[in-house]
Amino acid sequence: MNSPILNAVFGGLLRMTEALMASAPTLLVGLAVAAILRFYLGADGTRRLFGGNSLRALPQSWAVGMLLPVCSIGVLPILIEMRRAKLKAGALSAFALAAPLFNPLSLLYGVTLSRPYVILMFAVGSLLVVTLVGMLWDRYSAAREGEDASVVLESEKDPTDIGVRRLFAVIGYMCRQLVGPVGVWTLVAALGVGLLACFLPWGALQHSINRDDWWAPARMAGVAIPAYATPMLAMSQLGMMFQHANSPGAAFILLVIGAGVNLGTIGWLARHFGTRSVAVWFTCLMVIVVGIAYALNRPLIPPGVTPSDHTHAFDIYTNPIHFLDSNVGAFAREKLAEKFGPVEQICLAIFAAMALAGASLRLMDRTKGDAMESVSAGSESVDTPPESTMLGYDRIVSSQVVGGTMIIGLIVISVVMCYSFYPAPEECMEEIRLIRAEAMSAALSGDTEHAKFWVPHWDQWSRRAEVGAFLRRGTITPYQRMQGFLLRKKLDLFEHELEHEHDDPFEIRGFVDDVMATDTRWRTAYRKPYGSSDEEVSVNEVVIPSDQDL
To answer: Which residues cross the membrane (predicted)?
Structure first.
């Protein structure tokens, strides 16, 4: 049963399923935004929103993209509407690369991962790449891109429905797109993740991205092209790379290429702009990104951090199955259950209903089209359909009002999402209390798999507490930051010890006591932000930790 081919295929399908589940929330957002662009702003309003053909098109496109909580799959329906509005290739490139990289949630999360100026340099470097590549593509893109810019096809005309009919048209459009081009390119993007897992066996990247390895950025460039990562996943992997002192250049490539591009995006661009034009664009992108990565590789090495000999940050891109056995089905269900949270459950339920409705609507469209062709063939003229009458509640709303409301709404929603995703430290500590009980009791009872499941959640909630405190208080003391660093370092060491599966219960008890003591000091740091003399460890002892403590 343990055939290498079956192992690769099964692991690839599992990774594809995980990618589709992870992309569901942002894909739903992308479909909704695309429907608003089509039925409310129209082609003219969309061109104004993204800067049209002016000099501000590139920065305006990536600025709008940074307000949208979408991933590299979620941008696909929006790119379709931007193309329909006949925006330039550079604007599409800027939006496609910038939107998945940074949004308020991922930027705030990134502040907890490393020194803030490092994250700022990554953000500035990424936007520089986006702008430069967009300018180059606008300069050297194929001339046929603008040849027929003035020709408007019948299928590209703006819809004229208003009121309730427009709302139903929006829903119908989203359903049709899901079972149409957007669904197809989403599967292409997920296929890249599956192929990557097929060719990279379990644990293949644990020792390949070390900071002293000159080839680490180049290896990451090869992995990042077919990979798919949500903005939050890319940021968390960025943090693990800094925590284990991996290659900063490889981290930059993972952020720009891994989170910003997938095979679906590349395929869609090649379909609409030509293979040769996209090949030139992608070559320029890779040369610029890899060049910047090698330039940043040495200067951004974090001081005082001993490089780890391996990392699990990239296990998500390799085959999750070590070998096939009778328990592989239960293992697959457990892996998918970890990703199948309440948000994913709601989104997939909505997608199931949308797919059923979209398939029915497309079948009705085909039947209606055949009927219209038969009528046209049997008569020389067809009566012009009467103009739609306005219902009692229909109101004409200008594109400027809708566009301005949409932008303001995006900003407000982004702010609300930041405060919702990053609660106050007290709420985070309550969540950590439950997580801590699950992890520690599992470790003491010998259930290492259950303990390893909860330790990453403990790490994540400690970071969310740090960001939540910053949002509400405007500052994080060095004492709090260092205690957070120590806690996450202890959790990382504890997770590694769980992987060794110690048989001695007293040894595990010692690790548990060590983590609990560090967690107590971390919680005290938020109750007494500047420390006090009655704490277990003084501020001086924490600010300059010894190698043994780390």
So the answer is: 20-41, 61-80, 92-111, 117-137, 182-205, 250-270, 277-296, 343-364, 401-422
Which residues have a Cβ under 8 Å from the Cβ of 365 and sit 6 or more positions away?
176
**Nearest-10 crossing angle of helices 89-101, 76-84:** 160
Instruction: Please give the Cα distance from 248 to 259 (Å, whole number).
Output: 16
Q: How far is it, in rounded angstroms, from Cα 161 to Cα 142? A: 35
- In terms of Cβ atoms closer than 10 Å to its own Cβ (0-12, 13-18, 19+), residue 475 is exposed
Amino acid code (one letter) for 279? A
| DSSP output for 328-370 | HHHHHHHHHHHH--HHHHHHHHHHHHHHHHHHHHHHHHHHHHH
Contact by Cβ (8 Å): 80, 174: no
**433: pLDDT strictly greater than 50:** yes
* Residue-wise DSSP of 145-184: GTTTTT---GGGSPP---HHHHHHHHHHHHHHHHTTHHHH
| Amino acid making up residue 321 | I
- Mean pLDDT value across the chain: 79
Distance CA 475, CA 481 (A): 10
Separation of first and last alpha carbons in the chain:
43
Q: What pLDDT does residue 83 have?
A: 92
Cα angle: 241, vertex 117, 106; to 5 degrees: 60
Report pLDDT digits (tens) over 132-155: 888 888 876 644 444 444 444 445
- Range 215-233 average pLDDT: 87
Contact 16, 333 (CB under 8 A): no
Residues 372-399: pLDDT tens digits?
555 444 444 434 444 455 555 666 777 6
The pLDDT of 333-349, averaged and rounded, is: 84
Q: For residue 67, give Cα distances in angstroms to 99, 100, 321, 430.
A: 8, 10, 37, 30
Look at the block and give the residue holding tokens 């699990």: 312
Q: Which two tokens stand for residue 22?
A: 């992870």
Name all contacts of 478-483 with Cβ < 8 Å and 24+ positions apart. Answer: 478/543, 479/525, 479/529, 479/530, 479/531, 479/539, 479/542, 479/543, 480/525, 480/526, 480/529, 482/542, 482/543, 482/545, 483/518, 483/521, 483/522, 483/525, 483/542
Strand partners, 210: 246
Average pLDDT of the segment spanning 313-320: 82
Which band of pLDDT confidence, cut at 50, 70 and 90, is reported for residue 99? confident
Task: Give residue 536's pLDDT band: very low, low, confident or very high (50, 70, 90).
Answer: very low
Q: What pLDDT does 453 receive?
A: 84
Whether 263 contacts 191, CB under 8 Å: yes
The structure tokens listed for 503 are: 């048989």
C-alpha distances in angstroms, 343 versus 28, 102, 349, 453? 11, 21, 10, 19
496-501 own/partner pairs: CB under 8 Å, 24+ apart:
498/443, 498/448, 498/451, 498/452, 498/455, 499/448, 499/452, 501/448
% residues pLDDT > 70 (the chain)? 79
Does residue 118 have a pLDDT over 80?
no
